[in-house]
Amino acid sequence: MTSTIGLFAHVDAGKTTFAEQLLFHTNHIHQPGRVDHQNTYLDHHTVERERGITVFSEQALMETDKSMYQLIDTPGHVDFSAEMERMVHVIDYGIIIVSAVEGIQGHTETVWQLLREHDKPVFFYINKMDREGADKEAVMQEIEKDFAGSIFDAMKFFQSDCLDDDLKEKIAEKDDFLLEQYLEGNSDEKLWRARVAAMVQSRTLFPCFCGSALQGIGIDHVIKALDEWAGKTWDNSRQFIGTVYKIRHDKDGHKLTFIKALQGQMSVREQLNGEKVNELRIYDGQNFSSVDKVEAGQLFAVAGSSTLSIGDTAGEGKKSATYTMVPTMRVKVEYGKEESDRDMLQLFELLDAEDPSLQVEWDNELKEIHLHILGVIQLEVLKQLVFERFNKLIDFTPPEILYKETIKFPVMGYGHFEPLRHYAEVHLQLKPAERGNGVTFENRCHVDDLPLNYQRLVEQHVFERAHTGILTGAVLADIHIILINGRAHEKHTSGGDFREATYRAIRQGLEQAEKLLLEPYYEVKIKVPSHLIGRVIADIEKANGLFDAPVTEGEKAILTGKVPVSTFRDYPITFASFTKGKGSLQLRYAGYYECHNPIEVMEKLAYDKNQDPIYRSSSVFCAKGESYSVPWHEAKEHMHANTEKATH
C-alpha cells in the first residue's frame, strides 16, 4: 500500500525541517539536515541551499512498519506556487505546516484552497512551539475559523489507548452515527478509531498536531497518524493510466518525465503514448533506482520520453490538467550579442518544459524572448539557474503586467482572402464568454456551404496561436467563436488561405465590437490591529480596489476584497513597514476583471493595430486578374457567401 504525502506551508514555517524529521524518524536518513546548514535531503539544488527556500518539488521514500510513503516537499514561496500546485494533483494526503507564532499566513490560505478544490484530506502541524510567542490554542482557533471547522487535537488521540470523553464528544458532533454511539455510552475503541479514519479520509475531520520540527517534537504522532489514517488502495487490474506532474533534464540534457500511476501497471519495453519505455526510475531525493515495473500509486520517471508534457494523461490520449496559479507579469530576456538567438530560445524552451507557467514566447518581429512570471524572486532564481546549468549570463527587463482583451456584445466577423490563384472566405460570430474561459469554438457551418475538411482547418487556425486584440495587442480571452459560414474554391484554395481568412475574420469582428481591456486582480484578506484599519482602507481605495465592510474580532479588524495586481504588487513591503509585523496580508490570484485605467495603459503600450505583422482587418478580393484590398468596414458587402446566415 503506497500513499503520496505532500508537505505545504508558507515560506519559513519550517516545512523542509519537518520533512527532514519525518525521514529521520522513519530511519531513512541518519541525521536530520538543517536549512541554515545547507545540508537538507530534499533541498539539494545549489540555488535552494544558498537562498534557504524550496524552489523545486522533490520526493523521498519513507517506510514505516505498516506502510510505504512517497513524501513530496513543495515550495512555500508565492513566486513558485505554480510548482506547488502541480504537486497537489498527485498527492493523496496533504500536511499543512503552520507557525505557532505567525499563525496562518498568505500562502497558507492559497494552499488550503487548492487542497479543498481537489478534495485532498489534510493534516495540520503547528510548528515552532518552542519559540517565544507560540500560541497553540490561538492558531487552532484561527485554523478552525478560517479553514476547517472540523479540526481536532490529534495529539490526544495517540496519547492513550482509550479516547477521552471530551475528544469523543468533539468528534461525535461531526457524525450522526458516532453521536448516537456516544449518547448510548458505546466505548468500542475499534469502532471509534475505524470511524475516525473514514472521517479523516473523507475530509469530514482534520487532525491537528503541534510541536517543534527543529527539535523533532510531535513527529512520532504524525507518523502514527499516517499509518492509521493515510490508507490508500489502488487498482492494478485495469489498463495503465497516469498523470505527468514534473519534467526534468539530467546533466546531459536527457528528458525525465515524472508520472503518478493512477491505475494499472507499466513495464519496461511496453508502449506509453506511442513510445517504447526503455527505462523506469524510482527517485528518492537525488538518487534513483531502475525498476522493471511500476504499479498504481507509485511515482516514477520515464527516461527519454519526448511526447508527454506536464499535465498530460499518460496511457490514454493527451488530456491535460488545468492549473489556477497563473502568471500575471511578463518580462523580456536580455543577453549578450555574442549569444545565438536560437540557442537561447532552445535553452528557455527546455526550462518551459520543466515549468509550463513560464509560457516562453519568441517574438519574431522584435527578435526577443518573452516569458511570464509570478514574481521578482522567480527572476532572481531563473538568472542564477541559467548561469549554473548553462553557463549563460542573462538579465530581464522590469516586469510588465499581462493584460487581456475581450468584447462586451456579440458581433459578426468576415474574412476573405483571394489574391490571384488563392481563395478562402470565413464568417465567424464572436460572443463574450464567462471570465476565465479563454477562447472556445463552436461549428454551426453546414457542409453544403463549406466542406468538412475546411471547417476543421478554420477550427485549427482558431486554436493554433493565442490571438490578440486591437486595443493593446494583448491576448484575447473569454470569447466564444462560432463558425457560421464559409467558402472555398475547387481549384484555387491552397495551404494557408484559410489561416488568412480566419485571422482576418477575427480581426474584422474586433474592429466592430465594443472592446474591453482586462487586468489581473488579487483576492486580498488583511488582518490588522483595529486602529490601523483606516490606513488599510485608504490604501486599497488608492489602489483602485474593491472591498467588503471590515469585520472586527476582538482587537483585530479583517478586511477582504479584490485589487488590481498592477497597483498592489509592491504593497507587501509597505504593509510590513507600517504594521511592524502585527498584521497579516494574504494575496491570491483572483482572475481577470475590467481594467481600472484602460486609457492610460493603451497610451503607455502604444500598440498600432495597423502595423501588426500577423493580423489585417481588411480582406483581399480579386477581379479581372487583379487583387485588391477592401477595408474592414466595407468587407461584409463584398462577401461571396450568404452573410445573413442565422447566428442565434
UniProtKB/TrEMBL annotation:
Keyword entries, A-Z: Antibiotic resistance, GTP-binding, Nucleotide-binding, Protein biosynthesis
Statement: the UniProt record of this protein carries the keyword Ligase: no
Transmembrane segments: none
Cross-referenced SMART domains: EFG_C (SM00838), EFG_IV (SM00889)
This protein's name: GTP-binding protein
Domain Tr-type G: start-end pairs: 1-237
Domain of life per record: Bacteria
Xref: CDD domains: Tet_C
InterPro entries associated with the record: EFG_III/V, EFG_V-like, P-loop_NTPase, Ribosomal_Su5_D2-typ_SF, Ribsml_uS5_D2-typ_fold_subgr, Small_GTP-bd, T_Tr_GTP-bd_dom, Tet_C
UniProt keyword annotation of Cytoplasm present: no
